[in-house]
Amino acid sequence: MDQSAWIDEHASGHVDIGGQQIPVISANTVVVGTGAAGFCAADRLVMQGQRDVVMVTDKRRAGASRNAGSDKQTYYKLTLAGAEPDSVREMAETLFSGGSMDGDIALAEAAWSPRAFFHLVESGVPFPHNASGEYVGYKTDHDPRQRATSVGPYTSKTMVECLEAKIDGYEIPVLDLCRVVDLVVSDGRAVGLLCVRLDVTQDAPSRFLLLRCTNLVYATGGPAGMYADSVYPNGQWGANGAALRAGVHGKNLTEWQFGLASIRPRWNVSGTYMQALPRFVSTNGDGNDAREFLTDFLPDYGDQLSRIFLKGYQWPFDVRKAPEGSSLIDLLVYAETKLRGRRVWLDFRSNPVREDFDASQLSEEAYAYLEATGVVQLGNSTPIERLQQMNRPAYTFYLERNPGVDLETDMLEVAVCAQHNNGGLEIDQWWHSNVEGFFPIGEAAGAHGVYRPGGAALNSGQVGATRAASWIAQVRREDPLEADAFADTARGVTERAVTLLDAAGQRAAEGTDTTDDLIKHIRRVMSDKAGVVRSKESVAQAREELSALWRDYEETIAADPGSRRSVSRLFLIRDILTSQFVYLHAMEHYVGTGGLSRGSVLYSDPDGDLPRLDASVVEPLPELFRMQLDAGALDDVIQVTSWDGEGEPTFAWRQRRPIPEQTEAFETTWRTYRENKNIG
Question: Are 441 and 468 spatial neighbours (Cβ–Cβ below 8 Å)?
Fold first, then answer.
């Protein structure tokens, strides 16, 4: 059935705003987002007997889960193979040790990781096991065990597709091309959602849709639209701004993950791409004047190649590894692109530094790995030969992309890009926010600490979806707010949205559509002044500029109402600016209360130290790279953001919740479980 016809048939009523008859769809639970976390939540709700579910998304085939990955995209879970000891508590300690992570969330993610993992296995995700049925693993970054597993570069895509097939089998409605505009909140309780419809034209009875519900499961991903230099897939934008405007608290908003990624197409250049030891080449803007640049700062052949190798599984920029480790590579790429205005490329056609390849000069760790994979035995090989020896699909991946890149003949342009927001929206151990009935899951949720093991985000999304669904299915099955009361509550945010669209359309008719230029500009400001390298001064500059744009937005933006793209961008930019406004204030609070360089961010500090270089290096590193390391000073506290959508946000440091001590007897736990399934 056509989506408009379905909405007309299933609408429980309409709200009249400015002559528009806005349909209202009602359900116990609305799941926003069609990634791995969103589909998991819907599946879990049905499995637990709650079928009164509607899903809504801005673009069903977009999103990070379906379109992002890496050389060997990792899923992190409890050890399920071999003789190496592991335990729920030990995995929780690993997650907790990342700093600024709540212990109850760490314990929940560890305890339910097998449940989440085997749900994926039973759903059809082909995680590898040996002949005896052990689900083998490998060690990933920030991982003391071998808890990681993978189905290749498309692990999350496979998860999405398998879970989506189950939802299609249940015939759960999925409303596509509906962009989040605002949450509908009444007395601290989420009662619905306002979306702008991108599947209709301006001739439709309404460009908007209201959803009335008891529960909102928010699986919208991280605020990917904030940065220009981004490895988030095209079409992944996030919608944290709407939640923040509605009073949902933020948590650890300053904590991002950055890393080296190709620009066209967008993809992490982790794993084998680095272990193949490509040449790093810098060119001018036209692609000419090619030169290697790492040797200017890393003149020792073996040291340079060993650091490149380590970027394979130390892929995210880690400021602790910048002074004399692999993350100096990220800083040198950043300096070349941001400070010198040049372009950086990976060249797999010829060897770094010199024509021949001498594996004997590598670190013991790098040599052992390349010997085990047969690279050393190749002798005087090139990077492309090494890549194809270790992982030919990594070569064919780029060949098959759009635009395709043949690494045998072409260089691959890279930059240091935003990849994941470790912070997000505040949650408890059931992924319930401070706004009753609102459950952020996946990257939208602030589930992580400063550091996290590679692949922990995929596990977190599945565990969070399962726990949110469990809470909803057992204690939040009541009907939504009564129809008339909902209409009265929704009227304010809906009138504002209708007015914004009408006024922006009038300005476009009198002049020029400004949405495309503005979205490019605000994202560039964030990458240039509040990205992987930032300072107190640059953050303040970005905050001042973007705050002014945010405050004036509804009186200045011009958008063509006849263009679905422009209408989409109209509300998207509002959401991005909202997120930038709050996140930049969080960054200012962080540095203003003594926060130093930590995680994946270098806070430039004139009183700090520069990364160490070989004594023979003549050219100094940029002063911008002076830093003082946090050294875990704020690991036991969490930055919480509070805002009501007006004025400026406020911030507080709270103690992180410890890992719960589970010491009660089995019979006691059993009795409690029988009585309330241990909810709450």
Answer: yes
**Bridge-partner residues for 417, per DSSP?**
259
User: For residue 239, what are its two tokens?
Assistant: 């919608």
| 177 three-class SS | coil
What residue spans of 78-154 are helical by DSSP H? 88-96, 103-111, 113-123
User: How many angstroms from the chain centroid is the CA of residue 54?
Assistant: 24
Task: Give the type of residue at 26.
Answer: S
β-sheet bridge partners, residue 412: 346
Whether the CA torsion 600, 601, 605, 610 is positive or negative: it is: positive
What tokens appear for 159 in the block?
């998860």
List average pLDDT for each run of 10 residues in the chain, which is 680 residues long: 94 93 98 98 97 97 93 95 96 98 98 98 98 95 93 95 98 98 98 98 94 98 97 95 98 98 95 97 96 96 97 94 96 97 98 96 97 96 97 93 94 98 98 98 98 96 98 96 97 97 97 97 98 98 98 97 97 98 98 97 96 85 96 97 96 98 91 82
Contact 35, 221 (CB under 8 A): yes
Residue type, 310: L
Measured between alpha carbons, how far is 5 from 10 in angstroms, rounded to an integer?
9
Q: What is the pLDDT, as a whole number, of residue 71?
A: 86
The one-character DSSP state at 409 is T
57 close to 175: Cβ distance less than 8 angstroms: yes
Omega before residue 403 within 30° of 0, cis: yes
Quickly count: other Cβ atoms within 10 Å of residue 642's Cβ. Answer: 15
- The Cα-based distances of 363 to 141, 269, 313, 373 in angstroms read 18, 21, 15, 16
**CB 547, CB 581: distance < 8 Å:** yes
Alpha-carbon gap, residue 531 to 523, rounded angstroms: 10
What does the alpha-carbon distance between residue 27 and residue 51 come to, in Å, rounded to a whole number? 9
Nearest-angstrom CA–CA distance, 120 and 460: 13
Helix (H) or strand (E) holding 180: strand 178-186
Closest CA to 271 of 165, 135, 373, 186: 373
Q: Are 601 and 630 in contact (CB under 8 A)?
A: no
Grouping H, G, I as helix, E, B as strand and the rest as coil, residue 352 is coil
Instruction: Supply the angle between the helices 536-556 and 483-510 in degrees, to the nearest 10.
Output: 90
Residue-level pLDDT at 680 = 53
Per 3-state DSSP, the chain is made up of helix, strand and coil in percentages (nearest 5) of: 40, 20, 40
Report d(CA 31, CA 284) in Å as an integer. 46
Spatial contact of 356 and 380, defined as CB atoms under 8 Å apart:
yes
Helices (H) and strands (E) in the chain, counts: 19, 22
Q: Residue 386: left (phi > 0), alpha (psi -120 to 50), or beta?
A: alpha
Query: 258: closest CA among 297, 227, 219?
Result: 227
Give the Cα separation of 341 and 394 in Å (integer): 29
> Nearest-CA neighbor of 225 among 511, 527, 501?
527
Could you tell me if 119 and 674 are in contact, meaning their C-beta atoms sit under 8 angstroms apart? no
3-class SS string, 260-320: EEECCCCEECCCHHHHCCCEEEEECCCCCCCEECHHHCCCCHHHHHHHHHHCCCCCECCHH
Instruction: Dig out the tokens for 549 from the structure.
Output: 């744009």
CA distance 131 to 144: 25
Burial class (CB in 10 A: 0-12, 13-18, 19+), 185: buried
Residue 219, classed as helix, strand or coil, is: coil
In angstroms, rounded to a whole number, what is the distance separating the alpha carbons of residues 43 and 161?
13
CB atoms within 10 A of CB 557: 23
